[in-house]
Design brief:
12 strands; three-stranded antiparallel beta sheet; Rossmann fold; 324 residues; elongated; binds zinc ion; three-stranded parallel beta sheet; 2 domains; alpha/beta; 10 helices
Amino acid sequence: MADFSLEHRRCNLDSISPYRGRFAPSPTGPLHFGSLVAALGSYLDARLNNGVWLLRMEDVDTPRVVAGAADAILRALEAYGFEWDGAVMYQSRRGEAYQAALERLQAQGLVYACRCSRRQLAETARRGIDGLVYAGLCRNRPPFPEPAALRLIVPDRRIVFDDAWQGRVACDLATESGDFVLRRADGIYTYQLAVVVDDAEQGVTHVVRGADLLTSTPRQIALQEYLGLPTPRYLHLPVVLDAAGDKLSKQTLAAPLDPKWPLPALLRALRFLGLGPVRPVANRAEFWAQARELWAGAGPPLRGRRPEASGAIVPAAGPALPGT
Ligand SMILES: [Zn+2]
């Protein structure tokens, strides 16, 4: 706990296992419960597969980044006992890579400029699986000088993938998502483009993250295919539910954690994953031993289990156990 060196924690990057997982928080605030669940699931899956676990700060949307949040997240992860491999990747330093990918898409004629106003978008777009479905108004407009948002022409076919937790997922991007933005008019590259470029750069083979990102995955697969990049395996962890089985409010999900008391939050996160009866533990070492055991024991049944079958897990305050 005394060592706060935030990079190169472990050096098994040449591990025999081809598994490469990652956790990619957004430093828009302190680590919250939803992020802790994603970190726990991705970490356990990586470690149980003898894989490496990489960290990436998704700080591409610089206006939303909160000063000091990235370091606070890293220190919180340390306090919870996570050990990551290699240097932390920062999206805010990756503009050249995103631009290069954008240019490859432009060279294929897959990108067009859109200068629709918010009002025009609201008036012409339908509600889709994740926000508005852009109606493609600017697809055939003559080019105009920037600044303008740059949109990707989505493939006119269904994207299908097998999620290790959610099962088979299919999405018709043209009708459910629409041509989506790769670079905003203010010059900021979007999450969808950045995450695809970075997963490829980090050689990520397995993406374990919250189901709130499930609707983003088809767009990311489309980008991977356009760019000739491999598609990782996906496992989308259940969305946090409250006792009534309702999705927790953003407010609750985003409730800050206190890394000074790691055990209650870790146990809540483990319970939330619904892997089995969670026993009280006296220290972090006991927690991690139990967590590995439960994740390993879940094994194949975990794969394909749907969140509704995992029960409504109450992320209420856990037993007040001392931290270590
Ligand atoms: Zn437009």
